[in-house]
Specification:
alpha+beta; two-stranded antiparallel ribbon; 2 helices; two-stranded antiparallel sheet
């Protein structure tokens, strides 16, 4: 799919068609992370971790840092 940038105020915008948005499961409110490899623009939807994932990540950090102490306390 070939697209051109269109003028939008003082900048430019890339128009994404609705079918492509549905495939990617994004909306007009989706936040993106923009990066480059020096030649290509990489546009990735920024996903918010679920509360369950936040808890799991926090527990992993606590266990990595204080696992030995927690095991001794459990005895």
């Amino acid at each position: 799919m070939v697209r051109k940038l269109v003028r939008h105020g003082n900048g430019v915008a890339l128009i994404i068609d609705k079918p492509m948005m549905e495939i990617l499961n994004i909306t007009g409110d989706t936040t993106f992370e923009l990066s480059t490899d020096g030649r290509n623009i990489i546009l990735s939807p920024k996903t918010e971790p679920s509360p369950e994932m936040d808890i799991t990540l926090s527990l992993d950090k606590v266990n990595a840092r204080h696992g030995a102490v927690l095991e001794r306390l459990a005895e």
